[in-house]
Amino acid sequence: MVTSTTIPPQVEYRLTETGHSLAAAIGALADWSRDHTDVIASARQRWDVEHGVDETE
Length: 57
Fold this sequence. Notes:
57 residues, mainly alpha, 2 helices, 0% strand, elongated
């Protein structure tokens, strides 16, 4: 019997049905974060200033 070997070894992953059902929610969260990037960045900057965080550290 001859078997085929892939070098380097290769693994194929797939989402389960449960994973697919979560993908839509994760996608919506990613879309929301892209739509609000400027607001999020401003809030982070304000928090850093208020809490004395030095971005160069």
